[in-house]
Please model this.
Amino acid sequence: MKIAVCAKQIPDPANEVTYSNGTIVRPEEQVLDDTDRYGIEVALQLKEKFDAEVTIISMGPSGTQKGLQQALQMGADKAVFVDDESLKGANSLMTANVLSELAKSLSADIVIFGTESTDGYSGTVPQQVSRYLDLECISYVKAVEINDNVTLTRQTVEGSEKLNMPEKCVLSVTAGGVEPRYPNFKDIMAAKSKPIEQVSISDLTINTTQNLEFIDIETVENSKSGEKIIDEGEAYQEIVNKLKELKVI
Amino acid sequence: MKTLIIGEIINNNLSSGTLEILGKAKSLDLDVQVVTVGSDENPSIGLDLCKQTYLKRQNNSLNLSKVATKISEMIKNEEISLILGSSTYMCRDLISFLSVDLNSSPVSNVIDFDVASGNVSTVNSINGGESLYKTKINSDQALLLIRPKAFDPIEVNFNEDFETIDLDGSDLEVFDIFIEEKSGPQLEDSKVVISAGRGMVDKENLELIETLASKLNAAIGGTRAIVDAGWMPYSQQVGQTGKTVKPDVYIACGISGATQHQVGMKDSKFVIAINKDEEAPIFQLADLGIVGDTLSVIPKLNDNI
Model:
């Protein structure tokens, strides 16, 4: 079984996202998107049961490769990435086009994603990749039971439903579905010798265009008072008064 | 502009998200039709103001890729230029599939859009609503995923007048379908919402919120962090990846106010925030901020209301 897991390097989420000409400003050192840790965890659990090979696929400025290292530290076998100036500000479809080409080049049976990235959150790439690969997409997986079969629980609007995982498919895994493992010192050291390979965009078939044109970013006026009261035991009274004033009570 | 809205069914009727998009499309005077996807036997979704097609799928298999193929066909046959759907699980899947078929990247998280001289432009909210991001779409077809509550729903009369197309299931059999029980006021339409965050410390402390909610006839929500931790079902998550609420009063209890959460509640009319951390971003969105321990403030509220 060959598994490709998508991992995105993003600016440290502790800092506010900044934009330049409509595109997120990316520092040299980016970190692994926490959202992707869930997908990586599912891939590693499958690897333990079915002896699979787990390859990280990624697109974007590689920089110090810290985020890719973090993905390898969890236990993935290797990483391949595409970093090309022409992909700067790539829309979701172009991103999916590139990632599906990477998955294809690896002959991946299972391709796993988080549900949406923390910085761009378009939330469409896993499904788009499945369409490019002509595979079924099992989206919003929130629980995985691995026996001889793999049973997936999907989040639905009303609740949930279960399916057996087919031999080939694309999954998107929601946060909280599995508990991502923390690498120990040995894992961190081992990751340093795992292969990270850059793939040239000229080796991939890209037929998407940048159909979305950035126009403008506008700041919204904050109309809130931001009034703050330090609670010294009686601040609840302020809330009670306000709720009366608003006729809630 | 020829426009197709992908509709969804809730409680045998069109979802509020569908009606909101329909309201906006009508206000722009678009040439609109609706294709509704569902598995209900006899939904009452016919519309007196535009054409409605019902794609009836089997609920015992996952066949959204087949649904998308059918919609792609309709888009090509009817020369549709604008495709609109609500940011729900189903529409996210469908619009993503369609974007590949039509080779046109979609725009997600749209809170407003306009059509002028044949061009579609969109507005997204970024950085937790602090800024608006504007985009022009330069492809023949534009695909938009629209956030719930972005527009006012249209008032419509439903009828039985629509075409039904039965779709085959797929090999991906679905089983153990579970429907979450919903009790008490619902998040989307409650006038008062009380939400809990990590500052509640422990799942058991949510009882405090439940008591307050019953006193105020409020719906209960939570942040992504506590939903991920399993304290509440996903259906109660407020935020980017959860629900969008616009109540008259929103009470944020022990919520720091991460961007992810702000997006789902920033349009609430009056926001009360209780948080220990004076620097928590939630205070910037609050009309009344209490810097204090939620776990000591809420019991006092419960005793005095």
